[in-house]
Amino acid sequence: MARIDSFLKLCMDQNCSDIHLAVGVPPMLRMHGDLLPIKFRDLAAQELQSYIDEILTKTQKRKFESGHDLDFSYVSEESGRFRVNLFRKATGIGATFRFIPTEVPTLEKLNLPPICKQVCDNQQGMVLVTGSTGTGKSTTLAAMIDYLNRSRALNIISLEDPIEFVHKSYKSQIIQRELGTHLPSFADGIRAALREDPDVILVGEMRDTETISMAMTAAETGHLVFGTLHTIGAVKTIDRIVDALPSDMKEQTKSFLGQSLKAVMTQNLVKTPEGKGRHACLEVMVMTRAIANLIQTEQVHQIPSQLQTGGDMGMQLMDQALLSAVNRKEIDPDDAFRYATDKSLFAKFVTDTSVLKNVDPPQL
Predict the structure, then answer these.
(1) pLDDT tens digits for 91-102?
(2) Residue ranges of the chain with pLDDT lower than 50?
(3) How many degrees, rounded to 5, is the angle at CA 335 between CA 330 and CA 338?
(4) What angle do CA 83, 223, 128 make, to 5 degrees?
(5) Alpha-carbon gap, residue 154 to 318, rounded angstroms
(6) What is the pLDDT of residues 115-136, one digit of tens each?
(7) pTM for this prediction
(8) Collapsing DSSP states into helix, strand and coil, what is residue 150?
(9) SS3 112
(10) Are 76 and 84 in contact (CB under 8 A)?
(11) Which of 120, 144, 304, 336 is 20–30 Å from 223 (CA)?
(12) C-alpha to C-alpha distance for 287 and 281, rounded to whole angstroms
């Protein structure tokens, strides 16, 4: 057993999502959103390097020694599957291990809104799940793929970096391919997938112009494409896609968004009232003629008003999602206040008044 497995077992025993290892500090656990050091000595460079060397393949060692960061999956005999990011920083190497449950969660178990199923029922087009790092985008997408897998007979090709949840094929066939192991880039993976008779393509991260362009092509040619972007909200997501492509493709891109973008869902993980878990709150945009017209006429700043009044179609602003969850006592009102845009809506629910100190009085 690799020595690093002892840290991973501690992570699991404490019901943590991540463990951080870095030179010069003790190991740290991510517990319900908070980062907590464990009672251990500061890790020395040679010590941490020896822990990491025990779990790397020869190919991975060569790649890391050549100066590249590494993203890979590691399976611990005692603790299960982890997604690993290995990197270098000013004081030495560092690594983050994120636990990946063996069982793929369902949309019901994640308590996600019904619109998540409805957008999966599209035959073609693009569905984006966005948010900052660590907000559960991969988990939500895994649940959506699981829903399709159990309800329809499809050929689903999932391009990931690295493979996280391992899917079994039920009604659908699921092919999971890993960046760096099975394909050189997401764009190449999409290009290859188009020759593999896909119904659904999942793109783990739309991080560059070529990947975005290829994903758009796939969505336009009769496939249902799921993807992620590190953007906050529908407006910034649309701006990101338009800005990512060459200026001479601007009109074509706006036309694509109006016709083929089916939904943008932005996710935050907010602490539960007892502080022993986190609950997903989603801002949801569903494409309508009105929103398509706003994109075409470069008035995307008016999209939030469409989300606010589009509840009958499953749309909602993040503040609406947070407020509903607070009223249902699903999330901690103090944590909801931190994520809110219009903080005045949440001030009356706050129990820790210290969170109000750094907020401008006009919002309160």
Answers:
(1) 899 999 999 998
(2) 362
(3) 135
(4) 50
(5) 32
(6) 999 999 999 999 999 999 889 9
(7) 0.89
(8) helix
(9) coil
(10) no
(11) 304
(12) 20
